[in-house]
């Protein structure tokens, strides 16, 4: 199953929803697709959808999905990373009236470049090709989200061990 979430922003994200629905309609996507459509005006014809799901249902869908496609909101793609999965991230863009500016695009570019743990899709027309190659693309990503606390604790432990060994 593929799960798509567009978040709760007050502007529609029809571009992503239409693209996913078209990929399901033309047979590019053969597995079931569930979409959280938010306030989008497009109503998918080939996918199960709801405007919003309760948190527990969103969590279940993300856990069960083979692939999770999200908008570029950090909370959404970080939730996927925390499950140990590599999210496909399609940022909302100002030029399509999907957000007030291009901060999602700019932020996601930095995450993709610096962390190599998301599959960034800037051109929704390439989504089918990317989803066909998801497994290979995901294998090239780290997919890991390391908490700052864990990194801090590891570093403190390393320093403590170095100090003990010096005595």
Question: Could you please describe the fold and organization of this structure?
Answer:
The protein is an alpha/beta fold. It is 45% helix and 11% strand. The chain contains seven helices and six strands; from the N terminus they run βαββαβαβαβααα. It has helices at 14-25, 55-64, 74-82, 103-115, 127-132, 134-139, 148-166, and strands spanning 2-5, 33-36, 48-50, 67-70, 88-89, 119-120. Strands 3-2-1-4-5-6 form a six-stranded parallel beta sheet, sandwiched between helices. The chain is elongated, with a radius of gyration of 18 Å. The model has no long low-confidence stretch (mean pLDDT 90).
Structure annotation, total helices: 7
Summed over residues and divided by their number, the pLDDT gives a mean of 90
The portion of residues assigned to helices is 40-55%
Overall radius of gyration: 18 Å
Distance from N terminus to C terminus (CA atoms, Å) equals: 56 Å
Structural class: alpha/beta
| Oligomer designation | single chain
- Which blocks of ≥5 consecutive residues have pLDDT under 50? none
Main β-sheet, spatial strand arrangement: 3-2-1-4-5-6
What proportion strand? 5-15%
Q: Which H/E pattern describes the elements?
A: EHEEHEHEHEHHH
Biggest beta-sheet profile: 6 strands, parallel
Instruction: Write down how many β-strands occur, each being a DSSP E stretch of 2 or more residues.
Output: 6
Tell me, briefly, the overall form. Answer: elongated
């Amino acid at each position: 199953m593929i799960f798509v979430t567009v978040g709760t922003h007050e502007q529609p994200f029809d571009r992503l929803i239409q693209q996913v629905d078209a990929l399901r309609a033309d047979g590019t996507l053969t597995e079931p697709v569930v979409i959280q459509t938010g306030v989008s005006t497009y109503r998918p014809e080939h996918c199960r959808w709801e405007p919003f799901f309760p948190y527990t249902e969103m969590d279940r869908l993300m856990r069960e999905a083979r692939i999770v496609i999200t908008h570029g909101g950090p909370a959404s793609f970080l939730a996927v990373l925390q499950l140990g999965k590599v999210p496909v991230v399609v940022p909302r863009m100002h030029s399509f009236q999907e957000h007030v500016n291009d901060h999602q695009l700019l932020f996601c570019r930095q995450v993709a470049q610096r962390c190599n743990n998301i599959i960034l899709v800037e051109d929704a027309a390439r989504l089918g090709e990317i989803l066909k190659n998801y497994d290979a693309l995901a294998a090239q990503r780290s997919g890991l989200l390391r908490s700052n606390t864990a990194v801090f604790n590891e570093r403190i432990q390393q320093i403590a061990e170095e100090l003990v060994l010096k005595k």
